[in-house]
User: Which sequence fits this backbone?
């Protein structure tokens, strides 16, 4: 985009003002008074006034042009952001297809291996349990690459923007201080829609390091006026959530017993700086 900002006009305006100030023997615009202006002869005053009027007009046109250019840039940025999110969703769809293919291959291999074991051993391997173990392994990998965001506003019923959650999550990550994403991420609401509450938002990244970085930087949101009520936690299993709940209760008890000490949860245990 060819921006129409013109520094030459600004310098020309400043030079004209300096000449005018010297002609009335003042150093600054704030020093101008009626007395100073009355001392100027009519012809020089008219000449300076005409010059300043022309420069003001051209400066006004330049500012209007700059405002239009900035609005156009903002619109272009929003369009590019929307295209980026669409590309990310397309990549996620392709990834889901690949995972389905992997799952099918695993199922076929499990069936073959189960038959071999049944023939050559007295121990019977239950295929359902094996599938469950594989599923748990996949879920564990997903949780390591995921975070859960709470209090993220849901899309209104009348809102037709299908990328609402992705765009909002992107802005939250930026405000937290997370750098531009090299990979992709996927957003899913947890639970059925309920008008009485805001459902948690699960964000799945392409790498667990990105999820870890966001968890570290999420504390920056407390100083943000727009997202200070958003809090981000790891994606824990049901068992891990129960363990963490117990730890939180123990943490509160220790803080109540020792208000002068600082306690915190680290690696599934309660620690203190004192």
Assistant:
């Amino acid at each position: 985009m060819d921006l129409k900002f013109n520094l030459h006009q600004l310098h020309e305006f400043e030079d004209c003002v300096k000449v005018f100030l010297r002609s009335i023997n003042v150093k600054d615009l704030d020093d101008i008074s009626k007395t100073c202006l009355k001392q100027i002869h009519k012809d020089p005053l008219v000449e300076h006034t005409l010059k300043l009027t022309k420069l003001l007009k051209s400066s006004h046109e330049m500012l209007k042009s700059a405002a239009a250019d900035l609005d156009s840039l903002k619109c272009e940025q929003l369009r590019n952001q929307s295209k980026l999110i669409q590309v990310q969703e397309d990549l996620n769809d392709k990834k889901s297809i690949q995972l389905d293919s992997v799952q099918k291959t695993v199922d076929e291999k499990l069936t073959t291996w189960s038959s071999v074991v049944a023939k050559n051993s007295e121990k019977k391997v239950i295929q359902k349990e094996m599938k469950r173990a594989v599923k748990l392994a996949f879920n564990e990998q997903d949780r390591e690459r995921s975070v859960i965001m709470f209090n993220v506003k849901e899309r209104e019923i009348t809102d037709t923007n299908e990328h609402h959650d992705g765009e909002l999550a992107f802005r939250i990550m930026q405000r937290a201080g997370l750098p531009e994403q090299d990979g992709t991420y996927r957003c899913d609401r947890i639970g059925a829609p309920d008008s009485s509450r805001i459902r948690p938002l699960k964000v799945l990244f392409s790498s667990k390091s990105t999820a870890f970085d966001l968890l570290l930087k999420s504390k920056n949101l407390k100083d943000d006026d727009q997202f200070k009520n958003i809090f981000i936690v790891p994606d824990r299993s049901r068992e891990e959530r129960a363990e963490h709940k117990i730890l939180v209760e123990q943490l509160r008890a220790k803080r109540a017993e020792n208000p002068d000490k600082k306690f915190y949860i680290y690696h599934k245990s309660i620690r203190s700086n004192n």
Q: What stands out?
A: DSSP finds seven helices and six strands in the chain. The helical segments are 7-23, 34-38, 42-120, 127-144, 164-176, 208-217, 238-257. The CA atoms of residues 187 and 203 lie 5 Å apart. The beta strands are 146-150, 185-189, 201-205, 231-234, 263-266, 269-272.
